[in-house]
Design brief:
The chain contains 15 helices and no strands. By secondary structure, the chain is mainly α.
């Protein structure tokens, strides 16, 4: 419910602030007159010189990139899974999932407006990351800026706290505990939390590229964990000839490693590596390796190990109890579909009235 409150505050703040910003630029006509025409093209994603066609293969490529990076990452993201398991009932889980789906459809419309207003007022901004802070510091009144900033910060801190909990738990239980079964989890959790916090702050201060870090994090999830996660869901935790632990482990490591190496090559050499995002390299490698290595290995070691057999049985019981997502179709699906239509067709027309 914390995410519901913070997310609602962010949306409400955006709804209130967007007309104010548009009015300061001289209305919607003023915004349109001061930004490049491509900013209002639905299929344009930032290419200065599109190649192949009106919007270019490069823009089509970036649409594919969005699908390959964000869809897998949100589908398997532990933050989302953690929130679902924290719900008291299935109804609450379904309702909150619907709210989040609607939220992520409508929210980008307002933040796109903020970006366009920032460009219209100050085309010389040093980076895209500076748009929101500049708008709040220079284009909004102090009360409006403070309220909106607080709502955004509350949402960020909520997500950061959940991410810290997830990463610390994974380090302690999935890595540290495996090496030292007698480990004091409470003490180890505190050490892991402090270490992750310090490392995150250091990286954020050293490399303040918010969008780049988010994209890299989503890319690594897509290139490493997505295929093994889909496999275990598809088999419902049952043993299969085409899905083995060796295939999952090696496809995760090599797929994620390939994405990191490609990112390093981009940073060092630029072109021609920059033509292809790491996800275009890492995800196909992960898919191929998963099936190839799985076909060459087996599940015999797990089937013989009592500890692993117990864990697998628990996983299977969870899958047997969980209702599939289509069990909640109906009004929830209609709400999400309407949110998409509102974001694409209705919100731009409403904003053009100011």
């Amino acid at each position: 419910f914390a995410d519901l409150i913070f997310g609602s505050l962010t949306v409400i703040g955006a709804i209130v602030v967007a007309p104010i910003l548009i009015h300061q630029v001289g209305g919607w006509e003023g915004v349109v007159s001061k930004i490049p025409a491509n900013y209002l093209n639905f299929f344009w994603l930032g290419e200065a010189k599109p190649i192949w066609g009106a919007y270019g293969w490069t823009s089509v490529k970036w649409f594919i990139w969005y699908l390959m990076v964000f869809v897998p990452a949100f589908a398997i993201g532990q933050l989302n899974i953690q929130r679902i398991y924290a719900c008291k009932t299935e109804k609450v889980a379904a309702g909150m999932s619907t709210f989040i789906s609607a939220y992520v459809m409508v929210q980008p419309v307002f933040f796109s407006v903020f970006g366009m207003v920032a460009f219209a007022l100050n085309p010389a901004l040093p980076s895209k990351d500076a748009a929101a802070p500049w708008v709040m510091a220079n284009a909004l009144s102090t009360p409006a800026a403070v309220i909106f900033l607080c709502s955004v910060m509350a949402t960020i801190l909520s997500c950061a706290a959940a991410g810290l909990n997830v990463s610390s738990s994974s380090i302690v239980r999935d890595i540290w505990k495996q090496k030292n079964p007698s480990l004091d989890e409470l003490k180890a959790g505190r050490i892991a939390s402090l270490s992750v916090t310090v490392l995150s702050l250091a990286l954020a201060l050293a490399l303040p590229d918010v969008v780049g870090w988010l994209a890299l994090g989503f890319t690594l999830m897509s290139c490493s964990l997505f295929i093994p996660t889909v496999a275990i869901v598809a088999t419902r935790g049952r043993f299969s000839k085409w899905a083995t632990p060796s295939g999952a482990i090696w496809s995760t490591l090599i797929g994620g490693g390939a994405a990191i190496i490609w990112k390093v090559l981009i940073q060092i050499y630029g072109m021609p590596f920059r033509n292809w995002d790491p996800v275009f390299i890492g995800l196909p490698i992960s898919v191929v390796l998963f099936f190839v290595i799985s076909s060459m290995t087996s599940n015999e070691n797990i089937q013989k190990n009592e500890t692993y057999k117990t864990r697998v049985k628990t996983i299977q019981e969870v899958f047997d109890e969980v209702r599939p997502c289509f069990a909640f179709e109906g009004k929830d699906s209609i709400i999400v579909a309407l949110s998409v239509l509102v974001a694409i067709f209705v919100m731009p027309r409403i904003l053009s009235l100011f």
